[in-house]
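Question: Send over one sample?
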Amino acid sequence: TFPPHGPRGPRPGRRRSAAASVGHRFNMWPLLRLGFVMAAGARFATLQTPPRVMMCSRHAPDSRTLNQRIVKLTDPLDVLRLYDEYGHAYDEINLSTTWSRLGRSHGRSRGLILSQDGKCLHDLRQRSMQGAGRWKARHLASTAHALAKLQLCSEGWKGLWRVLAAASFRKLSNFNPQDLSNTVWAFATAG
């Protein structure tokens, strides 16, 4: 067997902390680095099921990291899973990017998220309604554009459309030509 630091020995000039050594030795480094904790319970003690790995809410990634992860996702169900996990830490950029990724979705997954008038989007809609009044013009435009592409124009979505309209009107002077064009198209499409 190899020593804990690898077959060639430690790298010159580098020392590991105790936590890093433990993480390296047991291949737990990704868990330590990301702040995961093991949830030990009665099931774990009896080994009936594997231990659950949960993310501590205080260790949610920063806004930029979240946005990079959202942009890389192509399946709308994955976008919603990420929102379910870290939605409490989303800011206006993350919310707008989430809507934008959902607006670009297609296929069977898109049908699933739009079924029952977008019922699985209820929490995302509420968060967007609460914060849209403080959003920048770019985020308002991309959210409206995504909603129009998703054809979320029924009665249940009128509240979000009203909030977006009021916020867009207040920030009209901050819109660049592309954002203005996208917003006008979105509201014309929505009716």
